[in-house]
Amino acid sequence: MDIQNFDIPRYLAALPLFQEMTSAELQRLATGCRLRRFSRGDTVFRVGTPCEEFHVTVSGQVKLFALSPAGQEKIIELAGPGITFAEALMFTDKPYIVNAQALADSLLLSVGKAAVVREIESDPRFAMRMLAGISRRLHGLVHDVQAYSLHSGMQRVIGYLLNSLPEDVEDAAALALSSAGCGARPMALKARTLDISLPVSKATIASRLSITPEYFSRVLHDLEAEGLIRMDKRDIHIPDAARLASHTLQ
Over the stretch 15-56, which tens digit does the pLDDT of each residue have? Predict the structure, then answer.
């Protein structure tokens, strides 16, 4: 991707947060943005660094994580293309409370606080859209805490796999997911074959699900032994998505 010719206003217009902004507003906001490339393993920001902007992953993937005093890593979120992060913290006048690192070669768009505040002051509707986005993130974090507290490791893994499915999968058996409480998005699944590819390492996904890498691998092998999935390295074939979802009820 050619950064020099990257159309920032056009990209912003495609994001839900900015979709209702006028061309002039997008142009003003773009003046407070910066576009940067990160190689795999590069640090985006560290705990304690001043937070004066929020970020959007244009391409690649970024992990947000915390470190225990013993150096153990806990992944808070994986931010893929189109995902924003650090927007809530930006308004607190406090430094970053987590670390961010590129998991792959990534392109990030950072939106400066001053430009955002200027648009909020000129259009209260923009503030409402930002609040809605922050609320969705908070809801997601609360949902994660509930999943880690109330759901088994098996349910978390199945929920992760089902959340990885395409958004346009047709409805058919929503009760299987909602009753299981496995953390998958509230959608129904027809008895159809589906294929997904794990976007990051198994160890990274395990940290995100608050389980050990060994347990994550064991669950995958157990699901494969029961014929619910078929694995080929990071590629996972699901012969029957509805049957996999209903497995959490057993």
Answer: 878 877 889 889 999 999 999 999 999 999 999 999 999 999
- What is the band of 169 on the pLDDT scale with cuts at 50, 70, 90? very low
The pTM score is 0.66
Residue type at position 84: T
CA-to-CA dists, residue 4 to 32, 37, 135, angstroms: 16, 12, 34
What whole-number distance in Å separates Cα of residue 199 and Cα of residue 164?
9
Residues facing residue 45 across a β-bridge: 100
Give the DSSP per-residue string, 71-98.
Answer: --EEEEEEE-TT-EESTTGGGGT-B-SS
- Axis crossing angle, helix 213-225 with helix 153-163, rounded to the nearest 10: 80
**Which 8-state DSSP code applies to residue 102?**
E
Distance CA 87, CA 107 (A): 18
Q: Tokens 């400066």, residue?
A: 112
